[in-house]
Design brief:
0% strand; mainly alpha; 79 residues
Length: 79
């Protein structure tokens, strides 16, 4: 596969997801993964950022929900 925009443009959604999973697993370097798949390291980092951001948001939301429930429970105990 040729490096560059052409290779990245040919990646389907599921391929991009697999690419991100492989990068997050850390079983090979980003450079090696990019070379093996024929894409840029920049693309690897971009695709990796998406699930990390989603996880951050999910945990932030879960923490917020827990804090709201704790405040509600405190209000019920005080009554």
């Amino acid at each position: 596969m040729d490096r560059g925009v052409g290779a990245a443009a040919r990646l389907l959604g599921r391929d991009r997801k697999d690419l991100a999973i492989q990068a997050l697993a850390g079983s090979e370097t980003v450079s090696d993964l990019a070379a093996r798949l024929g894409v840029s390291r920049k693309l690897i980092y971009q695709q990796t950022h998406k699930p990390v951001a989603a996880l951050d948001d999910a945990f932030l939301l879960a923490t917020h929900d827990h804090e709201v429930e704790s405040v509600k429970n405190l209000g019920q105990v005080a009554c």
